[in-house]
Specification:
The protein is α/β, with parallel strands linked by helices. It is built from eight helices and six strands; from the N terminus they run ααββααβαβαββαα. The protein has a six-stranded mixed sheet, with helices on both faces. Strand 5 and strand 6 form a beta hairpin. The longest helix is centred in the middle third of the chain and has 18 residues.
């Protein structure tokens, strides 16, 4: 299964299906932020990161322009990632509390991070067409990893995930469950079940304002651990 994930990752990294996103991610990599002027940006689509056998999958929105688009690893190199991985460390999923670059020693156990859109979008706003083009990558990752719980960060990820699950044949309730922090819903496919747990996104507009606190995020991750029986 690991080799199949590696194959998926290679396909993701090579993707150039969305001209607007390709142009933006590469422009950001050329212009660079002053603090990172001496760094070489990844400036490509970003694959998932973490345990290939994860019982818990964390679904965000898309790579940050100067975070994962710079480092090449989901939620790595920006304050949103700092907030998320510190919580993963506190709740026993991450080997360390910081995530700065590929090769920094961070490992995840029982959990994996991914996103429905793999390229950094302008203004953090992928278009519906861009999400649909990228959806098969998330679908394949879900099938390969086969988690029992998905923690969904934000409303965009929630709607994207529900659409992907429906495409995969999961019985998504109608009307679709609405996103909310701490909201839980379970979808089924045959004898299999998958529980979704909503969480406010770890963006600075939520963490700096106190809309999402460390205790709130810890509670969601601990609930995911409980639901996944790990």
């Amino acid at each position: 299964m690991g080799s199949r994930l590696d194959e998926l990752d290679a396909e993701i990294v090579a993707c150039r299906a969305c001209p607007r996103l390709v142009a933006w991610r590469e422009e950001v990599g050329r212009v660079r932020r002053a603090a990172f002027r001496d760094e070489t940006y990844w400036a490509r689509p970003v694959p998932g990161f973490g345990d290939p056998h994860a019982r818990v999958l964390v679904v965000g929105l898309a790579p940050a322009a100067h975070g994962a688009n710079r480092t090449g690893r989901m939620f790595t190199g920006d304050r949103s990632g700092d907030f998320l991985f510190a919580a993963m460390h506190r709740t026993g999923f991450a080997s360390q509390a910081t995530s700065t670059r590929i090769g920094d020693g961070l490992t995840l156990t029982g959990i994996r991070t991914t996103a429905p859109v793999r390229c950094a979008p302008p203004d953090n706003a992928p278009t519906p067409d861009e999400r649909r083009r990228c959806a098969p990558f998330l679908a394949r990752e879900l099938e390969l990893v086969d988690p029992s719980v998905v923690v969904v960060l934000g409303g965009f990820g929630w709607q994207a995930l529900l659409a992907t699950l429906q495409d995969l044949g999961w019985a998504v309730p109608r009307p679709r469950p609405r996103f909310g922090h701490g909201v839980e819903t379970t979808v089924t496919r045959g004898t299999a079940s998958l529980t979704l747990v909503g969480c406010f996104h770890v963006s600075q507009q939520n963490t700096f304002t106190g809309r999402l606190t460390p205790d709130m995020l810890d509670a969601v991750l601990l609930r995911a651990r409980e639901l996944a029986h790990i």
